[in-house]
Amino acid sequence: MYPKSVAGTFRRLKWLTLILLLGLYYVTPWIRWDRGPNAPDQAVLVDMPGRRLYFFFIELWPQQVYYLTGALILGAIGLFLATALAGRVWCGYACPQTVWSDLFLWVERRIEGDRGDRIRLDNAPWSPAKLGKKAAKHAAWLLIALLTGGAWVFYFNDAPTLALEMLRFEASSSVLLFIGLFTATTYLLAGHAREQVCIYMCPWPRFQAAMQDEESLTVTYEDWRGEARGHLKRSQSWEERKAKGLGDCIDCGACVHVCPTGVDIRNGPQLACIGCGLCVDACNDVMARIGRPGDLVRFDSLNAQIARANGAKPAFKPVRPRTIIYTLLLTVVGGMMAAGLVLKPKVDVNILRDRAPLFVTLSNGDIQNAYTVKVLNMTRAAQTYRLSLTGLPGAVLSVAGGEGEAADGAVPVQADPDSVATHRVLVRVPKEALRQPSTPMAFVITRQPDGLTVQHESVFLAP
User: Fold this and answer.
1) Helices and strands, counts by H and E, the chain
2) Whole-angstrom distance, CA of residue 93 vs CA of residue 448
3) Which three-class secondary structure state does DSSP give residue 51?
4) Contact 419/366 with Cβ under 8 angstroms?
5) Nearest Cα to 198, choosing from 265, 127, 297, 275?
6) pLDDT of 12-48, one tens digit each?
7) Strands 396-399 and 405-407: what pairing?
8) Which residues cross the membrane (predicted)?
9) Which of 129, 231, 335, 412 has the largest count of CB atoms under 10 Å?
10) Cβ atoms 64, 344 nearer than 8 A
11) How far from 363 is each of 188, 366, 368, 428, CA to CA, in Å?
């Protein structure tokens, strides 16, 4: 494709979106956030060695991966809502493929020229001038792709530290591997694949129609006003055109030439249309130059188009059943995630009962079960906890390697800052105190001195 440059409202909106999104992408890893001593100060960081995800004031452990699931659900529902309201607005403005393709295309225009110049250059025989332009374009593309891959790796490492290592040629092989991988994919997808990704690779166009209805805003063509098409002659008045049955469309092809996927919107809604609105800008420019009303191509709903064709007043209805349902789902899921983050515990406990053997009969006849207790200390300070039992009368609790036993009482356990403390715990019960092979019970862990309590259900097995 050789998309032509265009100026207008939607083109300016796309530039604004592109600058905003690229700015966020490249700048975010450099934002600092104070989390206290012995904690990373990068605002957004996926700490793979430390098994943490940091997002400003939010810190997630691997055990809290369900928050990522909630974020994906929010993203999906938000995309459904945006599609129900304004069609493929995500594809046209915010999709990474669109953003980087726009950037690469801007570079191509700056070096090789606009649509006509690029077509002539590609059809011309190879020469030093052509070779120089092609080399400059691909060098610029590779530089952008390299910056893109490097910025992505910064999200998984401390950005200033990694940047210094790269300047000193001390970056690890894994870092270089991922930078190379993301550089190659960016160069390939944004520089060469472009519209092929939107038309053939992306699954979203295949089921977007299920998200839309007759009130969704999409790029439309007023065929009732534009047809029949016909080229405009200088000596021909509009009255003469109308007498011949010709409409406002002068069949200039401007709407097709500016489309990044080569769609002719005059043929109706199509899978390849990404809803960017550049054809609206192109057509409005032509209509202004020939003295005809604008918005022959426009963002509109199917019902509004029918109303205009019949001379009625169109009305946009953003509030309708599907948008209400999507909004409610966003509110519920978002509220649940917000409540979960506010109430997120600073300690968690995981109990694993030994399966081999299921139980041990001691020399005095008591029955003993063994458990592995993992205490997750999600604070930056060492903590002391009291581990006790409930629901198992007569039980004696002890920690392997600890001091003493606790009969229906509690034993102390320690946990280092920001870590998982693992303790092997033994529970002994007199045989005559057991009434069934499996007795429900629970471990209770209480943080000292504030009394924060976490309970974990388990069972005690016996013959």
Assistant:
1) 16, 15
2) 52
3) coil
4) no
5) 275
6) 999 999 999 999 999 999 999 988 777 889 999 998 8
7) antiparallel
8) 12-31, 65-86, 139-157, 169-190, 323-343
9) 412
10) yes
11) 72, 7, 11, 12
Phi, psi for 358 (deg, rounded to 5): -70, -35
Cα torsion 156, 159, 165, 170 to 10°: value is 10
Does residue 401 sit in helix, strand or coil? coil
Q: What is the pLDDT of residues 358-387, one digit of tens each?
A: 899 999 999 999 999 998 888 878 888 888
- Among 279, 224, 226, smallest CA distance to 248 is for 226
Q: State both tokens at 30.
A: 């450099």
Distance in angstroms (rounded) separating the CA atoms of residues 68 and 79: 16
Pick from 105, 303, 100: nearest CA to 220: 303
Bridge partners (DSSP) listed for residue 453 = 446
Upper half-sphere CA count for residue 371 (Cβ side, 13 Å): 27
Q: What is the amino acid identity at position 387?
A: L
Phi first, then psi: give them for residue 421, nearest 5 degrees: -95, 130
116: tokens are 């006509």
- One-letter amino acid at 118 equals R
* Residue 130, number of CB atoms within 10 A of its CB: 14
Band (245; pLDDT cuts 50, 70, 90): confident
H or E element, residue 399: strand 396-399
Which tokens hold the place of 396? 């004696």
227 and 217 Cβ atoms separated by less than 8 Å: no
The strand pair at 360-361 and 367-377 is best described as antiparallel
Distance CA 397, CA 445 (A): 13
pLDDT at 148: 93
What pTM did the predictor assign? 0.83
Write out the two tokens for 424. Answer: 């092997």
Task: Enumerate residues 6+ apart whose C-beta is below 8 A from 162.
Answer: 153, 154, 171, 175
| 180: its two tokens | 């190379």
Closest CA to 96 of 153, 149, 175: 149
What SS3 state is found at 54? strand
Q: What tokens were used for 375?
A: 């205490």
| Identity of the residue numbered 443 | F
- Unique residue bearing structure tokens 């910025």: 151
Q: Which long-range contacts (CB under 8 A, 24 or more apart) does 133-139 make?
A: 136/111, 137/107, 137/108, 137/111, 137/112, 138/191
